[in-house]
Amino acid sequence: MHPVDLALSAEPITGGAGFGQWLNDALTYILDTVQSVDPALRTVLAGVAIMLETSIFIGLIVPGDTVVIVASTAVGSVVEGSFLVAAVIVGALIGESVGFALGRYFGPKIRESRLGDRIGRAHWDQAERYLARRGGIAVFISRFLPVLHSLIPVTVGMSAMRYRTFMAWTVPATTIWSITYVSVGALAAGSFRELLDSLHYAGYIFVAIVAGFAVLAILAKKLLQRSQKRHMEILEHEHEQPR
């Protein structure tokens, strides 16, 4: 519509409704763009992203969780969602297995390398203390903690823990993580598409679901990290032990 015709139209556009429609159009464009990608390619990309996210080399900068949520917004069926969950689980386990192998064969060299210095000695020491004190529980919980989810696999590889034991703890944690993230993305997108034709504020519902999950995830990580902090700190008597 020409700007003059729009200005003379009988139906004025309110600010709230106008922004709501703009948000709906923007989200529709984004979701349609994601959905236009071949399902197999989306699934593979999500698996690769989460594999890189759990890698010691680039895991601290790859937003694997964001890629998984974006991919899950295009899920159109339970079967498609199941394949995506499976791909994310497999990708995470491959990344963690690579980390374990690197720790087993090159652990000390990696820690003393330039990359190890960039990660920081404090983070390495924290991961070692946490694993030594909590064992398999540290492997499970680290999947939900920043930084540690990339360091723990390598740290486990440098320890006496067997690969079978490592997998026994990380598989259930990875499964829970994958199902949760894929479900949230699919739920947000599905709710938006169902309400799009009947509610002009459908976009707000989508944003509320994603933002609410993000806030809850951040709070949960902080609470979890706080509850585990005492297992990562240096004990008083350890200050006197030579390094």
Automatic annotation (TrEMBL):
<keyword id="KW-1133">Transmembrane helix</keyword>
<dbReference type="Pfam" id="PF09335">
    <property type="entry name" value="VTT_dom"/>
</dbReference>
<comment type="similarity">
    <text>Belongs to the DedA family.</text>
</comment>
<feature type="domain" description="VTT">
    <location>
        <begin position="62"/>
        <end position="186"/>
    </location>
</feature>
<feature type="transmembrane region" description="Helical">
    <location>
        <begin position="201"/>
        <end position="220"/>
    </location>
</feature>
<keyword id="KW-0472">Membrane</keyword>
<dbReference type="InterPro" id="IPR032816">
    <property type="entry name" value="VTT_dom"/>
</dbReference>
<protein>
    <submittedName>
        <fullName>Membrane protein DedA with SNARE-associated domain</fullName>
    </submittedName>
</protein>
<feature type="transmembrane region" description="Helical">
    <location>
        <begin position="83"/>
        <end position="106"/>
    </location>
</feature>
<dbReference type="GO" id="GO:0005886">
    <property type="term" value="C:plasma membrane"/>
</dbReference>
<dbReference type="InterPro" id="IPR051311">
    <property type="entry name" value="DedA_domain"/>
</dbReference>
<keyword id="KW-1003">Cell membrane</keyword>
<keyword id="KW-0812">Transmembrane</keyword>
<feature type="transmembrane region" description="Helical">
    <location>
        <begin position="166"/>
        <end position="189"/>
    </location>
</feature>
